[in-house]
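Supplementary Methods S3. Complex input for the fructose -6-phosphate-bound model.
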Amino acid sequence: MAEIVIVPSPAAAGVLVADEIVTLVTTRPDAVLGLATGSTPLPVYEALRPRLQGVDVSQVRGFALDEYVGIDPNHPESYRSVITKEVVEPLGLDPARIHTPNGALATISHAGEDYEREIAAAGGVDLQILGIGTSGHIGFNEPGSSFSSRTRVKTLIQQTREDNARFFDSIDDVPMHCITQGLGTILSARHLFLLAFGEGKARAVAGAVEGPVTSSLPGSAIQLHPHVTVVVDEAAASQLKNADYYRYAFANKPDWQGL
Ligand code: F6R
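Predicted complex, serialized as structure tokens:
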């Protein structure tokens, strides 16, 4: 089962995950990070900034979860641009070592396989940061996605386009298609951190953690992974039936156990 950590605020979640990343990078300077975009991971990237001061990050590698298809990579909302602005530049990472799936139309027919090859060549992802959509998606694996899927093109559901319209001038500007790591790709990472904040994520979190394992709620795929840490605030945890047990287990966690 995943370990569920209920924290008082997104900032506290950011510190918890950032500390794990710092430990990883300190022990393994060429660690491979799985990077999410959207609002959820921002407190992690924020908390990493001061904590990585003085840490050698020149070898750190990273793979973003997804990208919009057909978007100009220089568009401010392309995930390439977002990762550059939120992660690469503030943390001083080497841009050549940080990858996003290639959403260019000219090469889209093999972009998924190309990305899988790059991840495999890096030895796989050590620590994957995940958000979850209101539809229960992780990456952009919308309901119905196969648990064994690898990086490929998906069609965004209307709800996701509406959710992401806040980043664009209008919903019409939100691309219809994306290229995303598959659920199988995500499950191949060695340690998953799924973060969620706010009431709007409570249903998806409860489904992912306590619901049946079903492709109708792709986040429930985390139940198949041996090492998952779910970090949620009180609002996102509000529909978890066993929340008291998760609090009790975390409060009584032996020091030697780690996350
Ligand atoms: C982003 C991603 C998505 C988001 C999810 C939540 O790379 O893969 O799964 O994590 O849509 O988005 P936010 O964090 O903006 O609520």
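The chain has one domain: 3-251. DSSP finds eight helices and ten strands in the chain.
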